[in-house]
Design a protein that fits this description.
Elements lengths: L2 E3 L6 H10 L2 E5 L2 E4 L4 H19 L2
Antiparallel strand pairs: 1-3, 2-3
Length: 59
């Protein structure tokens, strides 16, 4: 699973180039994943991670 965020680990021109060539898929504006990854799986994994982090932060 690879998640790319504009400004964090990917710049906008590179993202657009990779989308045009079929290497990335755009989930939302500025959020991309590898074209071979299943978007539903990526989102569910991120949701699980955020729940774990939020529970840890509430101690």
């Amino acid at each position: 699973m690879a998640l790319y965020l504009i400004g964090l680990n990917l710049d906008s021109p590179t993202a657009h180039y990779r989308v045009e060539r079929g290497f990335l898929n755009e989930l939302l504006r500025g959020i991309y994943i590898d074209a071979v990854d299943n978007a539903d799986d990526v989102v569910l994994q991120l949701q699980g991670i955020s729940v774990l982090l939020s529970k840890h932060m509430l101690w």
